[in-house]
Design goal:
The protein is an alpha+beta fold. 25% of the residues lie in helices and 31% in strands. Strand 2 and strand 3 form a beta hairpin.
Length: 255
């Protein structure tokens, strides 16, 4: 499914970008002073964001970020004394059991966590804190761009809350086990080239070469290449991130 989404996003963006730069040349011709954003589900479990701003010379600058989803924001410290098996549920990650708050609220709506196999799902709560069924929160977040954009804004404003007991006093989540609610500025993937190093390379590749490349022109041989341009990026999901940038750039106006 994620591969299909990447293909569709890249294809739609490329159609809009034909003749707008790229082709291994620095992008030019964009109206200065613009900002455009794009959001998509990336890397198998995160909300990706690309923000592009146009420069005075008609080029653009790119910033890529990713937001963690509920199963990361709701992770709790079982050694703190506030959490136990009654007020948490779990999922399995790389063979390890991860405990998360059983009750959360997002944007003012209460959700109850349910372990399903080795995964966890948050569904709306009934009046007693039981899982009432209906939409799974994570699926709702990634359903469309508007919901994904709202996720960024809401969690940044303290709109994701965990509870040690249903109906009790909640605690807004402001950090994760990686530090930040977002991957920029977090400790996520700090070995090798690092997550940030990969994003820097992708951003620079788009800024220097434009984004009018097809998926077939994105080839990995150790490092990713865009046609004849070597990016230096090594991330396995390079195409996800670059397609996200393509979608944001496609929303810019040309001079």
């Amino acid at each position: 499914m994620r591969t299909l989404i990447t293909v569709l996003v890249a294809s739609l963006a490329l159609v809009a970008l034909v003749g707008c730069g790229g082709d291994a040349e620095p992008p030019t011709g964009y109206v200065p002073g613009q900002t455009a954003e794009a959001y998509a589900y990336v890397h198998g479990g995160y909300v990706g964001q690309a923000v592009v701003t146009t420069t005075d010379d008609g080029g653009f600058e790119v910033t890529i970020d990713e937001a963690f989803l509920p199963h990361t924001l709701a992770i709790v410290d079982m050694e703190s004394g506030d959490w136990n098996e009654d007020n948490t549920v779990f999922y399995v990650q790389r063979g390890n059991e991860v405990r998360v708050a059983k009750w959360i609220a997002y944007a003012g709506t209460n959700y109850t966590g349910v372990t399903v196999g080795t995964a966890v799902a948050y569904v709306e709560s009934d009046g007693q804190g039981n899982a009432a069924g209906g939409t799974i929160l994570e699926k709702s977040i990634i359903r469309n761009e508007a919901n994904m954009a709202a996720w960024y804004d809401t969690i940044a404003d303290g709109g994701f809350v965990t509870f040690t007991e249903f109906g009790g006093q909640g605690s807004p989540v402001t950090t994760t086990s990686y530090g930040s609610l977002f991957k920029r500025g977090s400790s996520y993937w700090t070995n090798g080239l690092t997550w940030q190093g990969n994003m820097d390379a992708i951003e620079e590749a788009a800024e220097e070469n434009g984004v009018a490349f097809t998926l077939d022109e994105m080839v990995r041989d150790g490092e990713w290449e865009l046609a004849d341009a070597t990016t230096g990026a090594t991330a396995s999901d390079f195409k996800d991130y670059f397609a996200l940038v393509q979608m944001a750039v496609a929303r810019l106006e040309m001079q």
